[in-house]
Amino acid sequence: MAKQVLKTNDLLFCTRPFFEATKVLTYNFLDIAFSPYDNHWKEMRKVFVSELLGPTRAGLFNDVTEMEIEALVQSISSHPSGTAINLNNKLLALVFAVMCKVAFGKSYREEPFRGATLKDMLDEAKNMLGGSIGDHLPILGRSLDKLSGWNDRLKKCFGNLDGYVQMVLDEHLSEISDNGDQKDFVHVLIELSSRNNANGSYGLTKDDMKALIMDVLTGGTDTIVVTMVWAMSEIIRNPRVMQKLQHEIRTCIGRKPKIQRSDIMQMKYLKMVVKETLRLHPPAPLLIPRECMNDCQVGGYNVFRGTRVLINAWAIGRDPRIWGDNSTQFYPERFLNVEADFVGENFDMVPFGGGRRSCPAFSQAATTVELTLGNLLYFFDWEVGDGLKNEELNMEEKGSLVVFRKSSLSLVPTKHN
Ligand code: HEM
């Protein structure tokens, strides 16, 4: 059924449903993630893929990621020995720094804006993107949204984020126009906005630019952090996996002072560990809602045009019919004999979705996770602390669009010589 939904009806389920918050927070659906399936979406996705994820920006992505990971390793090394570190906070700071530096040219996270940090503003936006009562019960629900103060919250949330993104744009506009090799994503968007459609390029409006920046901030931060935190949790809970993984990493690296992107290619077990994490803990368990574009049949059921379709990536990843009796066990070796990949023709696991609306950043995201985990496990040994055994780590979940650990992951690092 899951395979049939994604494979045979990809085009039928390519559009997104209308939610009030997505309309407001995406400047009337000008972004990629929540836009309907139309020419505008195609153009925005093209800009995103070629200008943010493509080869021109890949060098900057790699350099910034490696630099920030080095800073993370140094900061953990200087932590008082024998005491626990909140890995959620550390990894969030890392991913924010990478995303903001690649997209904006510098890390904006530490500076509060209108009394809130960027993270607080994004957390609020992500809560609202999950939808309101009015999105699910349109007639009565809209009045409830008004009475409960939800509409005012949305207005405030958009006002703050829009002000923030406007500040980023203004700062870039006031800089000298020739930035040479140092161009970040916002510089490129501004350049594209000054061209017009006549020469074949897409003339971006100010709202197009803001909507794209919002996609980087909402799509590119929590998802990566959540994956790293679940990976570290599973590794800690499974000492056998930790030992095998550290052996692989330390054997590959020898005495090199740091791990680089090129080293990761040889680390087959590390790649399997990340795949296994995304199978059991897809950060967006129901992906992003889709909507049926034409009447169709799925698994013998009639599905009418306009029906909202939620794809349960969490259940697909744990389905014993696909993954066998040990489907809920963290067992990376299962990928030795299984063809399954993140995206593509095989829909046995879909942490990045599938088909035309799949995540365009899956490759960069997976490499960032692999590189960070590789460094954390090369330089340090980890324990739960507080007298608990590693196997006793709490694995409860919480969240809506993105699902986190219920409690932060606090671990005690020991520097490995
Ligand atoms: C481990 C990290 C990530 C995971 C698990 C993830 C997961 C997803 C999922 C499930 C979707 C919806 C797919 C669907 O409906 O079929 C999606 C879409 C998207 N993601 Fe990601 N994502 C990650 C990282 C990123 C990053 C780093 C960025 C940006 C820099 C990003 C940008 C986007 C965008 C723009 C879309 C919308 C695609 C469209 O509708 O055409 N994601 N992602």
Walk me through what this model shows.
It is found in: Membrane. With 417 residues, the chain is mainly alpha-helical. It has a single domain (2-415), classed as Cytochrome P450 (Cytochrome p450, Orthogonal Bundle). The chain contains 18 helices and 9 strands. The protein has helices spanning 2-8, 20-25, 39-53, 55-77, 87-104, 118-129, 133-136, 138-147, 150-174, 185-193, 206-219, 222-237, 239-253, 261-264, 268-280, 313-317, 320-323, 362-379, and strands at residues 85-86, 290-291, 296-298, 301-303, 308-309, 380-383, 397-399, 403-405, 410-415. The strands form 4 sheets. A 3-stranded antiparallel beta sheet has the order 1-9-6. The protein has a two-stranded antiparallel ribbon with strand order 2-5. The chain has a two-stranded antiparallel sheet with strand order 3-4. A hairpin with a 3-residue loop joins strand 7 (397-399) and strand 8. The relative contact order is 0.16. Protoporphyrin IX containing FE binds next to helix 3, helix 11 and helix 12.
Q: What structural class should be given to the helix and strand makeup?
A: mainly alpha
- What level of helicity do the residues show? 40-55%
Give the CATH architecture: Orthogonal Bundle
Query: How big a fraction of the residues is strand?
Result: 5-15%
Strand/helix succession:
HHHHEHHHHHHHHHHHEEEEHHHEEEE
| Overall pLDDT score | 89
Number of helices: 18
